[in-house]
Design a protein that fits this description.
This protein is α/β, with parallel strands linked by helices and 339 residues long. The protein has helices at residues 11-17, 36-46, 63-71, 89-95, 114-120, 169-177, 184-200, 203-216, 233-242, 246-264, 289-297, 310-316, 324-329; strands at residues 30-33, 54-58, 75-79, 99-105, 125-130, 142-146, 159-163, 270-274, 282-286, 333-336. The mean pLDDT is 94.
Length: 339
C-alpha cells in the first residue's frame, strides 16, 4: 500500500544528519524551531497580547493551531471556511470585532487572499500558517512553515518562523535566543525515530503492520503542551541537502495532481476537486467518502480524511457549533496523495 504521506530518510540524509556543519544558514528574519507549532506560539508570544485577547483561527484545522493560541493565553475565535477551504470572509466580518490577531491557514496549499484581508482589517496582526504551503511568499506579519513528517520537504521534524514585520523582530529574536537547543542525546533519539518511521512507511511494512496500528490509535485531545526548542542540527543539515530539490518536487506533484484530477472527472462519487499551489495533497469533495476511500484502497493507495477531528478538537477550546459550512465539509472531504 502507498502511504498517504511521503517519508524519506535515505543514506545521503543519514550521512548529512551527523555532519558537523549544519549547512543551512537562515536569513536574519528566519528562526529555526523543532515544530511549526512552536513557530506559531513564538509569534503569538512576541505580540505581548493581554491575557484573554481574541485570536481568530479557521475551525477546519489542526489542533496544534488552536493549542498554540490557547497556550499563548489567548481566546480562540473560530472562523468558518468556504467551499474552497479558504477562510470565510463573511464569517470573518461578523466575528472581527475585538480580534487582535488572525491565524490564516493555507489548508493543503490552497492560498488565501492575504492582501484583501490586510486591506479590510489593517488593525489585525496576521500570521500565515504555511505548514501545507511551503514556498508561499509571506504577505502577513509572520509566516510559519513546516518541514515535519509528510510535509514538503518531509524531514520528520522542524519548523521555520519568518518575521515579515520588523516591528516584532527584536522581540522574537530575544525570545528565540532563550529557547533550549536540541542536545546531543535529543539528536540521537530523533535519529532513531527517523529510522523507525522510515522503516514503518516502507510499502510492504506499512500495508501489513503500520496502517493497521494507526487505525487503532485514538485521536489526540488537542491540548498537548507545545514545547518550544531550536531546530535539531541534524534536521538543519538534511534541509540544506533537500531544499534545492523542492521546486522540482512541487512541479512533479502538480503534474501528478492534474493527472489524478482528470482521472476523477467522470467519477459519480466526486463533487469537486481542489488543488493548492504546491499540490500538497489533492482534496476531493465526495457524495460518499467511504466508497471513494474503498476505490483508492483497491488501487493500493491510502487516502485520508485529514482534520476529520477538527470539530472535536475545537470543542476542547470552546467551539459551540458556530461554523455551519465546516460542519458540512468535514463529512464530505477526502485527501489523496500525489507524490
Amino acid at each position: 500500500m502507498k502511504p498517504r504521506v511521503e517519508v524519506n530518510f535515505d543514506r545521503a540524509e543519514r550521512r548529512a544528519f551527523w555532519k558537523k556543519d549544519s549547512g543551512f544558514q537562515p536569513n536574519e528574519n528566519e528562526f529555526l524551531l523543532n515544530h511549526a507549532r512552536s513557530g506559531l506560539l513564538l509569534a503569538l508570544e512576541s505580540l505581548r497580547l493581554p491575557k484573554g485577547s481574541k485570536v481568530g483561527v479557521m475551525v477546519y484545522n489542526c489542533h496544534t493551531v488552536m493549542n498554540a493560541v490557547a497556550q499563548a493565553g489567548c481566546e480562540v475565535v473560530f472562523i468558518d471556511v468556504d467551499d474552497s477551504l479558504r477562510i470565510d470572509k463573511n464569517d470573518l466580518e461578523k466575528k472581527s470585532s475585538g480580534l487582535k490577531a488572525l491565524v490564516v491557514t493555507h489548508l493543503f496549499g490552497i492560498a488565501n487572499d492575504i492582501e484583501a484581508i490586510r486591506m479590510q482589517y489593517p488593525q489585525l496582526v496576521i500570521i500565515e500558517d504555511c505548514a501545507h504551503a511551503f514556498g508561499k511568499e509571506i504577505i502577513g506579519d509572520f509566516g510559519v512553515y513546516s518541514i515535519g513528517q509528510g510535509k514538503l520537504p518531509s524531514l520528520g521534524d522542524g519548523g521555520i518562523l519568518l518575521v515579515n514585520n520588523t516591528k516584532y523582530a527584536a522581540t522574537v529574536k530575544g525570545l528565540y535566543e532563550n529557547l533550549p537547543d536540541c542536545f546531543h542525546t535529543d539528536e540521537k533519539k530523533l535519529y532513531c525515530k527517523l529510522l523507525l518511521t522510515n522503516l514503518a512507511h516502507k510499502r510492504l511494512v506499512y500495508g501489513l503492520i503500520t496502517s493497521r496500528l494507526k487505525q487503532r490509535k485514538k485521536p489526540q485531545s488537542g491540548k498537548e503542551p507545545i514545547v518550544m526548542r531550536k531546530m535539531s542540527r541534524g534536521i538543519r543539515a538534511m534541509f540544506a541537502l533537500r531544499k534545492d530539490a523542492v521546486p522540482e518536487q512541487i512541479k512533479s506533484r502538480l503534474e501528478n495532481a492534474e493527472k489524478e484530477t482528470w482521472a476523477l472527472k467522470d467519477n459519480p462519487l466526486v463533487t469537486n476537486v481542489l488543488c493548492g499551489i504546491n499540490a500538497f495533497m489533492l482534496v476531493v469533495r465526495s457524495s460518499d467518502v467511504e466508497a471513494l476511500k474503498s476505490h483508492y484502497a483497491q488501487r493500493g493507495i491510502e487516502t485520508a480524511t485529514h482534520f476529520a477531528n477538527s470539530l472535536f478538537w475545537a470543542q476542547t477550546f470552546g467551539y459551540k457549533g458556530e461554523c455551519p459550512n465546516a460542519e458540512k465539509l468535514v463529512k464530505e472531504l477526502l485527501m489523496i496523495p500525489v507524490y
